[in-house]
Design brief:
The chain is built from 10 helices and 12 strands. Helices cover about 35% and strands about 20% of the residues. The protein has one domain: TIM Barrel (Alpha-Beta Barrel), CATH 3.20.20. Helix 6 packs across helix 7. With about 325 residues, the protein is of the alpha/beta class. It starts with about 30 loop residues before the first strand and ends with a helix. The structure holds ligand PBG and zinc ion (ZN). Ligand PBG binds near residues 118, 120, 169 and 208. Zinc ion binds near residues 120, 122, 130, 169 and 170.
Length: about 325
């Protein structure tokens, strides 16, 4: 290697040539818009823990779909807040449940919008856990095998409503294979599964619990979500989901787990990263105080998530970032 003064790295950074050497660009097509839909309201309701985000009534969704399509954003991920909760999450698979109605409304308004749905029970159970709860050694816990049938029913009901991608987020063993079977048996072999395959038990989901009304009444999620300290276990989780037939793998949260994203590239499947509510709220809060420049910080985070290996980025900043990404192209 030539060294200084022959090798001058700053030559690459002359303003006129900088763009020639840009390795990673966030594209509008990479972004997925998460949306909260509350079937109990008829006007959009601001989410206190996530300034700038709202819960939408179902009636707003055709307009929201058109707005998102106008920004050229290809895809949304839906979270529902139902009118009724019970221990078995029955409102999660009702044909006229909040997500089922929401999917129909959005697909009717914009048929080529890719509609993804979160498949989980925590917004629909009165105890707030992600599936069926029962007695295990050590006390009340999420029951794995007993919850699989519930996930199958939720996923099939979303597909029947017209969902293009179902995204199971409960971190149950065997959930991807189980849902794949159920979808195929119902004739939905073309519906994709985006598995929350490496999902960590994170403190950064805090603002989401208010947004989606999905806080739990006892315990925590550490008996099903990953320990943030465990990289090899996280890679094994995603490897198993790939073997079970997942079409898209996911790492969640995104920004602190770039090593996991980078490692999962080797599996060869498309990779999604979920920049979660806490990652969003921290940037928003600092920007509101004038402590950081929001646009620079957001585009930096998204670029780094993509650089680490994400093909898709699920981010609450998607609508703003769509405009910024286009200007930077
Ligand atoms: C529910 C779910 C959660 C998130 C997405 N799906 C919360 C949790 O697992 O506790 C978090 C999203 C976010 O924080 O933005 N299974
Ligand atoms: Zn859940």
């Amino acid at each position: 290697m030539n060294v200084f003064p022959v090798r001058r790295m700053r030559r690459y950074r002359r303003r006129i040539v900088q763009e020639l050497f840009t390795e990673t660009c966030v594209h509008v097509n990479d972004l997925v818009v998460p949306l909260f839909v509350d079937e109990r309201i008829d006007r959009a309701l601001p989410i206190g823990s996530m300034p700038g985000q709202v819960r939408y009534p179902i009636g707003d969704l055709s307009g929201v779909a058109a707005r998102i399509a106008d920004l050229d954003l290809p895809s949304v991920l839906l979270f529902g807040i139902p009118a009724a909760k019970d221990p078995e999450a029955r409102s999660a698979f009702a044909p006229d449940g909040v997500i089922q109605r929401s999917v129909r409304a959005m697909k009717e308004a914009v048929p080529d919008l890719v509609v993804c749905t979160d498949v989980c029970a925590c917004e629909y159970t009165d105890h707030g856990h992600c599936g069926i709860i029962g007695e295990k050694a050590g006390g009340q816990d999420l029951l794995n095998d007993a919850s699989l049938e519930l996930m199958n029913r939720i996923a099939v009901s979303h597909a029947e409503a017209g969902a293009d991608v179902v995204a199971p987020s409960c971190m149950l063993d065997g959930m991807v294979a189980s849902i794949r079977d159920a979808l195929d048996e119902s004739g939905f072999e073309d519906v994709l599964i985006m598995s929350y395959s490496s999902k960590f038990a994170s403190g950064f989901y805090g603002p989401f619990r208010e947004a989606a009304d999905s806080g739990y009444s006892f315990g925590d999620r550490t008996t099903y979500q990953l320990n943030p300290s465990n990289a090899r276990e996280a890679i094994l989780e995603s490897t198993l989901d790939a073997e079970e037939g997942a079409d898209i793998l996911m790492v969640k949260p995104a920004g602190y787990y770039l090593d996991i994203l980078a490692a999962l590239r080797d599996l060869g499947l498309p990779l999604a990263a979920f920049q979660v509510s806490g990652e969003y709220a921290m940037i928003r809060a600092a920007a509101e105080r004038g402590w950081i420049d929001e646009r620079i910080a957001v585009m930096e985070c998204l670029t780094c998530i993509k650089r680490a290996g994400a093909d898709l980025i699920i981010t609450y900043f998607a609508e703003e970032a769509a405009g910024w990404a286009r200007e930077e192209q």
